[in-house]
Amino acid sequence: MGRRTTSKIPKKSVSVSAANSSSKDMFSAQERKTCWQAKRIGNNNTDNQLVRRRTIAVWQHRWDSDNRGRWTARLIPDLKTWLARDFGEVNYYLTQFLSGHGYFNSYLYRMRKVESPNCIYCEAEDDTAEHTFFECNKWLPEREALAMQVGTFTPRTVTGKMIENITNWDRVKMFTEKILRLKKVDLDRRQLE
Question: I need a surface site. Which of 5, 54, 113, 144 has the fewest CB within 10 A?
Fold first, then answer.
């Protein structure tokens, strides 16, 4: 029986890993500033939860209107729901999945790390996170096995499935980790050829 470790980070600190971190930091700082200013002028009744709700509402508005990070916004359309979960640590592999920044040739090509944005398995023109996890036939057996466990698995449904329960979260996490570990080996092998 394996030992299960959990993060000691408070759940409110486990935020949208793939979100613009400067926005997250700015909103956290603004929350602290608002609460501090209220206490400074003697308003000790400032509701921190109200401040948090306002912060998330502003962040959601920016999230919806910004043209950057659209893959992440497709996966996580509702920040309030995502942030309210009380489980689910975002690791190295989930960060790649959620951000689209990682072992994907379209990303590596933009970073000038590979010569082509094409998929190394099926020659799709854009090897993106969406292609890798939802389209590439190389990973069809893994995708089908996951869908049997968690239900419909699409970009629109995946994070909803993840936050339903810790079992689904762990299944998606293991799915992404398995694929990205194998893909990394294959990408490295190709670089050596």
Answer: 5
